[in-house]
Amino acid sequence: MTADCNKTQDAAHDLPDHSQPFLMDRKEKDVPVTPAGRLFLRQEMNTIIHCAIAGKHPLNIPAITSAVETSIIMHHPRFTSLLVTDRHGHEHWRKTHLNLDSHIIIKHDVIQVNDHEKAVNDYIADLSVSSPLDTAKPLWEMHLLMAHNCVVFRIHHALGDGVSLMSMLLSCCRKSNDPEMLPEIKNAAAVRRDSNLLRLVVKLMKVMFFTVVYVMELMMRSLWVKDKRTAVTGGAGVELWPRCLVTAKFRLDDMKIVKNVVANATINDVLFGVISSGLSKYLGIQSPEAPKEGTRLTGLAMINMRSEKGLQDVSDFKMNNKGTQWGNKFGTLLLPVYYHRNDSDPLQYVKRAKVMIDRKKLSLEGYFSYKVGYFVMSYLGSKLAGWLNYRICSNTTFTISNVIGPGEEVTIAGNPVEYIRVNTSSLPHAITIHMVSYAGRADLQILVAKDIIPDPQFLAKCFEDALLEMKEAALATIQPDKVS
């Protein structure tokens, strides 16, 4: 495969070769890569997003090709541009004619017999450490796993963040009950503004306090402060280690039952409660020496910094073409969970997570990290910014993200979608966790360094068991006449 890639890169300069994309009229100016995009192109932070969309029926190659040809992908400036570097070493996007055949890779081999989900996970795990994207073409691919009815999108993080890319991928899908309609995108409800002056003053004081505390912590994490070593700790160089990918499966109704018995809780609160409980279970059983009670395990999360939350409507992108909502627009949060041995009330994990997340929401940590990151990339260079981000990853324990997918079943190229799952390529963490909800379910993709976590299926079961225990505890608190 490496030899083929090198051959392809060499051939890219021998125009016109119709098997390769060719440059458009150079009257169109090159567009500088954004500061965030340059960060993800750094060798130490080189990040590719993998999105697996499994069909219920065998894949139809002509139908999939047609769906992509008629989608916004064919007109999107990031999906139709080459990455080029000028003589000063600055990266730019250069418009090119898109040759779709070079982006659709068809795999007929059977990876796993009678286990499609494991086959897809194994395939993506291998891609996560061994297969960079070819820079002789725009930085995205579609792998069609014919024997396993699955389309795997590979998209470089420099093209956009999870919100942008999920919105783009959904533009290739249609509603199951209306093949002409795009999936509906439900954004978060607007936050009510408090008009009470005293409460506003108190809230402002909290915002200032928590911002100072969390920003100072973020700065220290980027330099020297790190989590204590446990059986799930990664570190510098771990991004190169072999990976294994497994899935923990949740029902959104179960998460909502837990959410509804903890005052003002959200699905994210429940998710972090599950992570805290699941990691505690895993460490308590699998660790040769269990951590001390209350040991902190810090998660690194990226949050959407757009004014409009949730997935973005890209249906009019071709007409607008301003891209005001497109790209990498995220801040960074440190989200800690704690090891607790045999907590008698599973709901305590959710309550503790809610207190922590509520404080994070009050702070400007995400906004600060976004602005400072932009400043460092723009004025101090990508080398320093990449080093700081790599240090934060090396000093924390896991990566986590949560993207809301379609609430109803959708189709891709007329094929009903079984699941939508997302993960990224390897980071210095031994665990990266990405959740996507779809049609009443939520799948947690858990990518691990298998030399550190040799039994990831057990870790996934710990997360699943944690939610079931929380659900049982929640149902026990509900009046019998309210249970239906």
UniProtKB/TrEMBL annotation:
Residues of the O-acyltransferase WSD1-like N-terminal domain: 76-270
Keyword Signal attributed: no
Gene3D superfamilies per the UniProt record, alphabetical: Chloramphenicol acetyltransferase-like domain
Topology in the lipid bilayer: Single-pass membrane protein
Highest taxon in the source lineage: Eukaryota
Subcellular location(s) per record: Cell membrane; Endoplasmic reticulum membrane
Cellular component, GO annotation: endoplasmic reticulum membrane; plasma membrane
GO biological process: triglyceride biosynthetic process
O-acyltransferase WSD1 C-terminal domain sequence ranges: 326-471
Membrane-spanning segments: 200-219
GO MF, one example: diacylglycerol O-acyltransferase activity
Pathway: Lipid metabolism; Glycerolipid metabolism; triacylglycerol biosynthesis
Keywords: Acyltransferase, Endoplasmic reticulum, Membrane, Transferase, Transmembrane, Transmembrane helix
Disordered: annotated span: 1-27
InterPro entries per UniProt: CAT-like_dom_sf, O-acyltransferase_WSD1-like, O-acyltransferase_WSD1_C, O-acyltransferase_WSD1_N
A Pfam family this chain is assigned to: WS_DGAT_C
Reactions mediated catalytically: an acyl-CoA + a 1,2-diacyl-sn-glycerol = a triacyl-sn-glycerol + CoA; a long chain fatty alcohol + a fatty acyl-CoA = a long-chain alcohol wax ester + CoA
Record family assignment: In the N-terminal section; belongs to the long-chain O-acyltransferase family.
Protein name as it appears in the record: Uncharacterized protein
